[in-house]
Amino acid sequence: MGGLPADLWQAVWLTIELASITTVILLAIGTPIAWWLARSKAWWTEAIAAVIALPLVLPPTVLGFYLLVTLGPNGPGGLIAGLWGGRTLAFTFEGLVFGSVLYAMPFVVQPIRNAFAAIGDRPLEVAATLRASPRRAFWTVAVPLARPGFLAGAVLGFAHTVGEFGLVLMIGGNIPGRTKVLSVAIFDYVEASRWREASVLAGGMVIFAFAVILTMTLIEKRSAGLRR
Amino acid sequence: MKADGSGHIEAVFRGSLGGFSLDATFSAPATGVTVIFGPSGCGKTTVARCLAGLQFLPGSFCAIDGDIWQDQSTFRKAHQRPVGYVFQEASLFSHLSVKRNLLYGAPRASGASSDRVGFDEVIDLLGLARLMERSPHHLSGGERQRVAIGRALLSQPKLLLMDEPLSALDRLTKNEILPFLERLHARLSLPVIYISHDMAEIERLADHLILMQHGSVIGAGPLAVLQSDPALPLAAARDAAISLDATVEAYDASYGLLTLQVEGGRLLVPAPSVAVGTRQRLRISASDVSLARTAPQANSILTVLPARIVSSSVLGHGEVIAVLALGSEGHGATLLARITRRSRDLLGLADGMPVFAQVKAVSLVSGAAGNASP
Question: Where are the domains of chain B?
Answer without folding.
Answer: 8-227, 278-370
